[in-house]
Design a protein that fits this description.
heterodimer, A: alpha/beta, TIM Barrel, eight-stranded parallel sheet, 10 strands, globular, B: about 220 residues, alpha/beta, Methyltransferase, Methionine Synthase (B12-binding Domains), Chain A, domain 1, Rossmann fold, 2 domains, 11 helices, 5 strands, about 10% strand
């Protein structure tokens, strides 16, 4: 069974030889290939070389296109902060107000800034891995997207105090969200991972999510023709999980390390795949044996009923994470599937 | 209605993210004869403290905290004398996001709550080099520098500020408060970057800064 079959079987609830395992590794590819992050995130071939190096080193069950939202902020006119030791960040958004954000032209996925680089990398990954290792593309959710144009503070202010303008902005950026998502799928992504901060109870109340964001999420998802995973984006998701089944094309949910897996399964129902729950920041701090145990604990809770992918929560794992730790995650899945880790 | 009732109502407005309702409550209190300094001390401040307890218990979202900080800002603008200065300030503090960090919302919220609590806040913004933090702190005679970072990679840049403070022999005179999402997820990072303390949320910053200020006073007196 190759990774593609393993993941697809997991998503559809069929039998697998072992649960799939993934670690969010973008900048880590640069570490393996000796490339600086700026080159990695500006050159499609450099990025693909990083993913190939990761596959050769670990053989995780997914490959990922660039988890780099600065490219989107930049495409709208924002400024990027480059670092030698981490993925780039948005330094300055394009707009200083909601009115300015509404006036910004929407980027063309095939033409603007570094967006074509991400699409080119997706095509290259597809040419190498299609049907062998699933290709996932990560993109910001439609409800947090306006923050990339105007900064989180301005977006929160608009959401909370100027609801009509917030709705206009959601509609405005929603067009780009759908275009970008469909462009990634057309370039070869097998599944989209949508990081939606506004679905997290750490960011928004359930009422705010239900009233202002869920309708937009529902509407935009319906216009994207491909499977999607909703990602917790750093905050807890459990409080809103029961609201997610039924979203068009939703095949899974990535929960945070603070979410309870048992409760998550109860809230989400039996048919969607749960992903994650390993704490990102812990990965470099623990020994490989400890990470093996932590991984096994998650598998024992979430894997027996299928529909579970062992993965770290949040974004790129710290570059200081030892390779033996990453291998321990895979070893735990093997041990679990052979019964060694099942307590049998 | 007594003053405690006003405060309870204000807390409810904060939890419900009801900025307009909160403004009405402040107006009602002033109209009922509560003078502006007492509005701050006996209505706004207790509401913020109660909000902080709820936040500590993870019962408050960022959105609610953000609205609460706006409510605090509104109340201060309504109640402070022209010029916006408290009658009795707690002292000067310098805050900012450390070099390479651009996540400003938490820091801005901290700044609003610290201002509401009576501190003279000098907010240096995002991506602040260690030297700039220290230069400003010396210029305004601040006893606490608050350095914010959202991610582990940027949080580690705070170590440079720690080393700079120590190298200049100012460890006893200027305390280093650290904060941001990553410190809540990994409390041990506070010591790792050389922080003298942290608060789990924006409301808790006031108590932290008071504690650090009193440490400075004790250590300078010795």
């Amino acid at each position: 069974m190759n990774s593609y079959q393993r993941v697809m079987n997991t998503l559809s609830g069929r039998a697998v030889d072992r649960p799939p395992v993934f670690a969010v590794l973008g900048a880590y590819g640069a570490k393996l290939t000796g490339t600086d992050p700026r080159t990695l995130y500006s050159d499609a071939s450099a990025y693909v070389a990083g993913q190939k190096a990761l596959q050769a080193e670990f053989g995780f069950d997914l490959v990922m296109t660039a988890f780099d939202y600065s490219a989107l902020a930049e495409a709208f006119g924002g400024e990027t902060a480059w670092s030698a030791v981490q993925a780039p960040n948005m330094k300055r958004p394009a707009a200083g107000s909601a009115a300015q954000a509404l006036a910004l032209p929407l980027p063309d996925p095939g033409q603007t800034g570094r967006l074509p680089v991400i699409l080119d990398a997706t095509r290259q990954l597809a040419s190498v891995y299609k049907k062998n290792v699933p290709i996932i593309s990560v993109l910001p959710g439609p409800c947090i997207m306006p923050a990339l144009l105007m900064g989180l503070e301005n977006w929160m202010e608009t959401v909370l105090f100027h609801k009509d303008i917030a709705l206009k902005l959601l509609r405005h950026t929603g067009v780009f969200f759908v275009d970008w998502a469909n462009a990634l799928l057309a370039a070869g992504a097998d599944c989209l991972v949508v990081t939606e901060s506004m679905a997290s109870s750490d960011i928004a109340t359930r009422a705010l999510f239900t009233q202002q964001f869920l309708p937009h999420l529902t509407e935009t998802f319906a216009r994207i023709d491909g499977p999607k995973v909703l990602h917790h984006s750093g905050g807890r998701l459990n409080q809103n999980l029961d609201l997610l089944p039924g979203l068009d094309g939703l095949v899974g949910v990535t929960v945070s390390s603070k979410d309870d897996l048992t409760q998550a399964r109860q809230s989400l129902g039996p048919d969607l795949t749960l992903i994650g729950n390993l704490d990102n920041l812990t990965l470099p701090e623990v020994t490989a044996a400890e990470l093996f145990d932590m991984s096994l604990a998650r598998l024992r809770i979430a894997a027996p009923c299928g529909h579970y992918i062992l993965c770290n929560s949040a974004a790129d794992i710290p570059l200081t994470t030892p390779t033996v730790n990453l291998r321990a995650m895979l070893a735990a899945a093997v041990a679990y599937s052979t019964g060694v880790g099942c307590g049998r | 209605m007594n003053i405690a009732d006003f405060s309870d109502q204000l807390l409810t407005a904060m939890i419900n993210a009801d900025r307009a309702g909160a403004a009405d409550i402040i107006e009602c209190a002033v109209a009922a004869g509560v003078d502006p300094p007492r509005v701050i001390a006996h209505i706004l401040d207790p509401a913020i403290v109660s909000l902080g307890r709820l936040w500590e218990g993870e019962a408050i979202s960022l959105a609610q905290g953000f609205v609460a900080s706006k409510i605090a800002e509104d109340a201060l603008l309504r109640c402070l004398p022209v010029g916006g200065v408290h009658q009795h300030t707690k002292g000067a503090v310098v805050i900012g996001n450390i070099e390479d960090d651009f996540h400003s919302l938490g820091r801005r919220t901290v700044g609003l709550f610290l201002t509401a609590a009576g501190w003279d806040v000098y907010d240096l913004g995002n991506d602040v080099p260690a030297e700039q933090f220290l230069k400003k702190a010396l210029e305004v005679n601040a006893c606490v520098i608050g350095a914010s970072a959202m991610m582990q990679t940027t949080a580690l840049n705070i170590r440079r500020l720690r080393r700079l403070i120590d190298a200049r022999g100012l460890r006893d005179r200027i305390k280093l408060a650290v904060g941001g999402a990553v410190f809540n997820w990994r409390p041990e990072l506070v010591a790792e970057v050389g922080g003298d303390g942290t608060a789990h949320n924006a409301v808790g910053a006031d108590q932290l800064f008071i504690r650090l200020q009193s440490q400075v006073k004790r250590e300078v007196a010795q």
